Amino acid sequence: MAEAASFANIWVPFCRKHNIEPRNPETYFNLKKDPYKNKVLSDFVKDRRRVKREYDEFKVRINGLPDSIRRRSDAYHAREELKAMKEQRQKKEDEPVEVIKIKKATWMADGTHWPGTWLTPAPDHSKGDHAGIIQVMLKPPSDEPLCGTSDDSRVIDFTDIDIRLPMLVYVSREKRPGYDHNKKAGAMNALVRASAIMSNGAFILNLDCDHYIYNSQAMREGMCFMMDRGGDRIC
Known about the structure:
Layout: H1 2-18, H2 25-28, H3 44-91, E1 125-126, E2 129-130, E3 133-138, E4 168-172, H4 183-198, H5 218-226
Antiparallel strand pairs: 1-2, 3-4
Helix pairs in contact: 1-3
């Protein structure tokens, strides 16, 4: 999600600047129709080429994350074992040092344990036994448009383009053995409670991993339909 949030900094303003549809980058870059049709801004070709490169690099980073996390965790694990052996030598100077086995944790980039499920499951860190996690990935946007300027250090010129991004929060509910987590109903309950505190939004849209939105106005149209008090254009 951190990688996706980083890529969104360039992808979302690019879509706004050039009215890109659909806004799923994988679908957009694999369209068979002419991507330049009806595009009038002279810098579209350059912008599209740069964003395509950023997207390809983003996918490579995503594909490499499992191996990167594993290598980082192995390095931290080796360090912790050496540290434990050193402490044992200091306490028992005249006794032979025993091999110390430490639980193989999954480590984050900041040098702390991942609070959720580890690559090598352990008590309090397995699929059905872990703490709850709430992490704000992107802070709430301002009420007023935030436009880019020519002084921005971005790879694309977003002058006069709204560069705000929606709030993004990672939520993982707590699970413990012996307690029914109620599957999707329990997941939705956790999301509703977190949303009420963090954003208190008036609408909730639940999308599964196999759901896609192919029109950026779809959610707005849905809200107009639900708020119809005298015509579907009232919003």
